[in-house]
Specification:
By secondary structure, this protein is of the alpha+beta class. It has helices at 13-24, 44-49, 69-76, 87-105, 108-117, 125-146, 159-168, 182-192, and strands at residues 5-8, 30-33, 57-59, 65-67. The chain has 2 domains: 5-76, Glutaredoxin, CATH 3.40.30.10; 87-192, Glutathione S-transferase Yfyf (Class Pi), Chain A, domain 2.
């Protein structure tokens, strides 16, 4: 293997983040699609690659493997203008990437998953409602930040924006009204205007 390989689940926003970065930076990365819903990453062979048995996973030519979407973004973006070598700027980028995993991926994405893949009769309505309330609060935090900022960190487009964009732009699929968050809507358009941008549906 001469190029890194991305083990990718096309339906996943976490995998999409990495595909988007790869395309934006025109990186030479091979992509192997896997069907996580069919259990493709739950095999013993894949467990040897990633003990957590989740996607995405980046495998380097020397056999080193990097799991977790935002860790992969951080690795692939190093040295580019989507990251930063400045410690304070890097901390600000990471701050929003941690926020994304703690507040957006764990709430907006969770609600979206339940809506799409859990039968209505098996959905826990009180839990879903509480999750949606917390997700709306997180979206409001983002909208408030964007009232005075075009992007999330360093006054420019970075991997923090890529991380947050992945599940935020499809929040409507989980029943969230993005029209209530006009600054997010404007930011989404800003992200989609980037050269070499690819949509989630391009898999």
């Amino acid at each position: 293997m001469t190029s890194p390989k991305l083990y990718d689940f096309p339906e996943s926003g976490n995998s999409y983040k990495v595909r988007l970065l790869i395309n934006l930076l025109n990186l030479p990365v091979d992509i192997e699609k896997m069907d996580a819903l069919a259990g493709a990453c739950r095999t013993e062979d894949f467990k040897k690659k990633n003990v957590d048995q989740r996607l995405p996973l980046l495998e380097l030519p020397d056999g080193t493997r990097i799991a977790e979407s935002n860790a992969i973004l951080h690795y692939l973006a190093r040295g580019s203008d989507l990251a930063s070598d400045d410690p304070v700027d890097e901390a600000q980028i990471l701050r929003w990437m941690f926020f994304e995993q703690n507040q957006i991926e764990s709430k907006v994405a969770e609600v979206r998953f339940i809506y799409h893949y859990v039968p209505i009769e098996k959905q826990n309505k009180p839990f879903l409602e509480e999750l949606a309330n917390r997700a709306n609060r997180a979206l409001q935090v983002m909208d408030d930040h964007l009232e005075k900022n075009d992007f999330f960190a360093c006054n420019r487009f970075t991997i923090a924006d890529i991380a947050l964009y992945a599940y935020t732009h499809v929040a409507g699929e989980a029943g969230f009204e993005l029209s209530h968050f006009p600054n997010i809507q404007t930011w989404i358009k800003r992200v989609e205007e980037r050269e070499r941008f690819i949509p989630f549906t391009e898999r």
